Amino acid sequence: LLDGKNIALVSDAGCPGISDPGEDLVRLAVENGIPLTIVPGPTAVISGLVLSGLPSGRFSFEGFLPMNRRARNNRLEAIKGDTRTLVFYEAPHKLIYTLRDLREVLGNRRITIARELTKKFEEVIRFTLDDAIMKYQNESPKGEFVLIIEGADEKRIEEERISKWQEISLEEHVGMYMEEGLSKKEAMKRVAEDRGLSKRDVYNSLLRK
Asked: Which of 64, 76, 97, 197 has minimal Cβ neighbours within 10 Å of its Cβ?
C-alpha cells in the first residue's frame, strides 16, 4: 500500500475488521495516511441482532469476552445495568462457560443464540439463559456463535434506584448532600430526583418534621 498499490481484503468467514485482525490493518492504514473504504457485506453481529427478535434500535456490541475469569466478570458487572440489547461473539469450546457467567451476573434474561450465520448449518434458537445452559451442558456445540441478550429492564432499574433510598430518612438524605457541599435547596432537588418525588413534596415533608 505504501508503494502505491491497491489491495482488497475479502473474507468468506465474516466481516474482516469486526473482532478480527483486519482491525489492525485498518488502524495501520489510518496511521500511515492511506485512504481506504469498505463495501458492506455480511457481518454476524448485525445478522444475529436482526434475527433475534430483540430490540435493535439501540445495542451494545461486546465482541469476545476476556478469557481471564476476573476480567470477564468485571466486564459483565460493568454492563449489567445497560438497557441496550447486548451482543457477544463466542467460540464453541467456551460457550457453556460463558452462558453460566452471563446467567450468574445478568440473571435469567432472554437470549437468542445464532450459529453459523449465512452458512449451510445456520441455526437460530430463542430462549432464556437457563434453557440455553440446560441445552448446551448436554451437547457439544459446533460452529461460531453470536449471543444476543436482552438489556436490563429500565423500569426495574428505576424501582431499585428509588427503593434503595427508602432505607434512610429524608433528613438524612438531604444532610448527606449538604455534607458534600451542596446548598439545602440543591440538596432537596437531588433528593427529589433520587426518590422520584417533586421538590415540593420533599420541602413539605421536611417542614412537617
From this structure: 64
Using the predicted structure, report yes or no on whether residue 78 has a pLDDT greater than 60: yes
Task: Residue 37: name the closest of 29, 46, 45 by CA.
Answer: 29
The Cα 151–Cα 187 span in angstroms is: 32
The span from the CA of 95 to the CA of 90, in Å, is 6
Predicted structure pTM score: 0.73
The strand order across the sheet containing 110-115 reads 59-64, 85-90, 145-149, 110-115, 123-128
Q: What is the pLDDT of residues 140-149, one digit of tens each?
A: 999 999 999 9
Q: Which residues contact 20 (CB under 8 A, 6 or more apart)?
A: 11, 14
